[in-house]
Design a protein that fits this description.
The structure holds 2 protein chains of 2 kinds.
Chain A (H helix, E strand, L loop, with lengths): L2 E8 L9 E8 L4 E5 L6 H8 L7 E6 L16 E4 L13 H6 L6 H4 L19 H14 L4 E5 L7 H18 L2 E6 L2 H7 L2 E4 H11 L5
Parallel strand pairs in A: 3-7, 3-8, 5-6, 6-7
Antiparallel strand pairs in A: 1-2, 1-4
Helix pairs in contact in A: 4-5
Chain B lengths: L4 E14 L3 E15 L4 E5 L6 H8 L7 E9 L2 E2 L2 H7 L4 E4 L12 H11 L5 H11 L16 H12 L6 E5 L7 H16 L3 E6 L2 H7 L2 E6 L2 E6 L14 H8 L13
Helix pairs in contact in B: 3-4, 3-5, 4-5, 6-7
The chains are: A alpha/beta, B alpha/beta.
Pfam family, one (chain A): ABC_tran
Protein name (chain A): ATP-binding cassette domain-containing protein
Family (chain A): Belongs to the ABC transporter superfamily.
Chain lengths: 218, 266
C-alpha cells in the first residue's frame, strides 16, 4: 500500500528528449517525502505522472495498487490530488470561494471545511479578493475535501512570504498526520524540505541509478 | 542633499462598483515611506497583497484611472505628479516587471528589444538591441527567438536588457526571482547589485527574504499597505534579537532554516 512510480519514462513526443527517464519512487501513507532538484529536470513532471495527469510511455504508476485516476462511473475522485504553486491559476476567477470548494465535494463543502484552514469570512469572496497565502489554503482545503490518500504538493509555497509559507505547511502537515495521507513535497528549497519532510530524495538519485540498468531502445 | 527617490506617506485607494451603482472604496496602501539613493539597493519585503507592486506602479505613474493617490513622491528632491512620473517611465525610471507575460508572445525578442531601444530614444535601435543582448550574456541568435522558447532565466535577462535601455537612474525590480532555479536567482540578484554599483538606485520588491538579504543595503518591511520597519541586513541574525519590530522578527523566525515558527506560537 503506497504511491509508487516504477521505472517511469516520459517525453512530450517521439522527437523530444526524455523529461523523466527511468524514475522509481515510493511514498508510504502518512509519510512526507521531499523531492529536491533544480528546475527543468522533471520534478513536476514526475509529480504529474504520479497523480495520473500524464501517462508514462514506459513503466507504471499506482496508488495503493490501482491506477491514480478518478473513477467516473462511481464518482470517486482521484486518490492522488495535486496542489499547484500558483493557487490563483488553479481557480475559476468568476467563482466565489464556496463554489470553488464545492467542486471537490458538491453540496456539502463549506460545512466540512476546517475553519482554521479556510476562515468562514473568505467563503463569499472572489479569488482576486484574497491574498496568495489565503488562496493556497483554499487550494489545499479543496484537495483535502476529496479525502485523498496522497497529495503531490508542487512548490506550494514558492510564491509566499515566510509567514504564509510556515502557516500553509503547518496546516498541511496537521491534516496529513490526522488522516494518514502520504505527501510528495516538490521544492527547490532544501531548508524547506528539511523542515517538512520525513526524508528527502534528489531527483537525480531517483532517476540516475535506474537509467543505467535499462537497455536503450533504438 | 536629498535621495534620488523619496516616497513619503504614500496612500492609494480605489473606487470600485459592486452590484450596479453601489460604490465602495478599498485602501490597499495607507502609509508607505521609502527612499533609495544612487549606488544603493533597497529591498522592499512583504507578503503578497501588502502593496509592494502598487508602490512601484505609483512611482511610475502607472496606476489605473480609478485609483486615488495622496502623499508625496520626489525624484531628486523634486515633487512629481503622476503625469510627470509617467513621462520619466522607461527613461529616468525603469520597471523590471514580474514575469514573461510582460513580453509580447508573438514577436521575436530581438524586435521587442529594438522597439524598447527606439522608445528610449536610442539613435541606433538595431545596434543598441544587439549590444544589450551580449551585455547580459545572451548570444545573438536569441534575438530571433520567441519568448516561450527562452528559459525563465533568459526571459529575466531580456527584461533587464529592455529596462536598462534608457539608462535609468532608478530601477524598480518587481519580484524578479520566483520560479527560477537557484543559479539563475543568484545571477539576477548579482545583476541588480551591479546595476546599483554602477551608480543607479535599485528597489528590489520581493517576498523572498533570504534573497533580499544577499544583496540589499537596506531592507524595508511592509505589511498591510504600510511600511513598518527598516532594517540593515546584518541585523537578521540568530534568533532575531537585533530586530525590534515584532512582524520583522516573525518573518525571520518563520524561515524554515530558523525554526519555521509562526507568530502565534510565542
Amino acid at each position: 500500500m503506497s504511491l509508487v512510480a516504477e521505472n517511469v519514462w516520459f517525453r512530450y513526443g517521439r522527437r523530444h528528449p526524455w523529461v523523466v527517464s527511468g524514475a522509481s519512487l515510493a511514498v508510504e501513507p502518512g509519510e512526507v517525502v521531499g523531492l529536491h532538484g533544480p528546475s527543468g529536470v522533471g520534478k513536476s513532471t514526475l509529480g504529474k505522472l504520479l497523480a495520473g495527469l500524464l501517462t508514462p510511455q514506459r513503466g507504471s504508476t499506482s496508488a495503493d495498487g490501482t491506477p491514480p485516476n478518478p473513477d467516473r462511473r462511481t464518482g470517486r475522485p482521484n486518490p492522488v490530488q495535486v496542489v499547484h504553486q500558483h493557487a490563483h491559476l488553479a481557480m475559476d476567477p468568476l467563482w466565489k470561494i464556496t463554489t470553488i470548494l464545492a467542486e471537490a465535494a458538491p453540496g456539502s463543502a463549506p460545512a466540512e471545511v476546517d475553519p482554521s484552514l479556510v476562515p468562514p469570512n473568505l467563503l463569499d469572496r472572489f479569488p482576486h479578493e484574497i491574498s496568495g497565502g489565503e488562496a493556497q489554503r483554499v487550494n489545499l482545503a479543496r484537495a483535502l475535501l476529496t479525502a485523498p490518500r496522497y497529495l503531490v504538493a508542487d512548490e506550494i509555497s514558492a510564491s509566499l512570504d515566510p509567514i504564509s509559507q510556515a502557516a500553509v505547511w503547518r496546516l498541511l502537515l496537521t491534516a496529513v498526520r490526522t488522516h494518514g495521507i502520504g505527501v510528495l513535497a516538490i521544492s527547490h528549497d532544501r531548508p524547506l524540505l528539511a523542515a517538512v519532510a520525513d526524508r528527502v530524495v534528489d531527483i537525480a538519485d531517483v532517476t540516475g541509478t535506474i537509467q543505467e540498468t535499462v537497455p536503450v531502445v533504438t | 542633499m536629498s535621495a534620488l527617490l523619496a516616497v513619503s506617506s504614500l496612500a492609494v485607494s480605489f473606487h470600485q462598483y459592486e452590484r450596479g451603482l453601489r460604490r465602495r472604496t478599498v485602501v490597499p496602501l495607507s502609509a508607505m515611506d521609502l527612499t533609495a539613493d544612487r549606488g544603493e539597493l533597497v529591498a522592499l519585503v512583504g507578503a503578497s497583497g501588502a502593496g509592494k507592486t502598487l508602490l512601484a506602479h505609483a512611482v511610475l505613474g502607472m496606476l489605473p484611472p480609478n485609483a486615488e493617490e495622496s502623499g508625496d513622491i520626489r525624484v531628486d528632491g523634486e515633487p512629481l505628479d503622476p503625469p510627470a512620473r509617467r513621462a520619466r517611465a522607461g527613461r529616468g525610471i525603469a520597471l523590471l516587471p514580474q514575469s514573461v507575460t510582460f513580453l509580447d508572445p508573438v514577436t521575436p525578442v530581438g524586435r521587442q528589444l529594438r522597439r524598447s531601444a527606439a522608445l528610449a530614444g536610442r539613435p541606433d535601435p538595431r545596434a543598441a538591441a544587439a549590444t544589450a543582448l551580449t551585455d547580459r550574456g545572451l548570444s545573438p541568435e536569441v534575438a530571433g527567438r520567441y519568448p516561450h522558447e527562452l528559459s525563465g532565466g533568459m526571459v529575466r535577462r531580456v527584461l533587464t536588457a529592455m529596462a536598462m535601455m534608457g539608462s535609468p537612474d532608478l530601477v524598480l525590480a518587481d519580484e524578479p526571482t520566483p520560479g527560477l532555479p537557484a543559479e539563475a536567482v543568484r545571477a539576477v540578484l548579482h545583476d541588480l547589485r551591479r546595476i546599483a554599483d554602477d551608480g543607479r538606485a535599485v528597489v528590489l520588491i520581493t517576498h523572498d527574504l533570504p534573497a533580499a538579504l544577499e544583496v540589499a543595503d537596506r531592507v524595508v518591511i511592509c505589511h498591510d499597505g504600510r511600511t513598518i520597519d527598516e532594517v540593515r541586513p546584518a541585523d537578521f541574525t540568530g534568533n532575531g534579537e537585533a530586530l525590534s519590530h515584532p512582524y520583522t522578527r516573525a518573518l525571520w523566525l518563520a524561515l524554515p532554516a530558523n525554526g519555521f515558527h509562526l507568530p502565534e506560537d510565542s
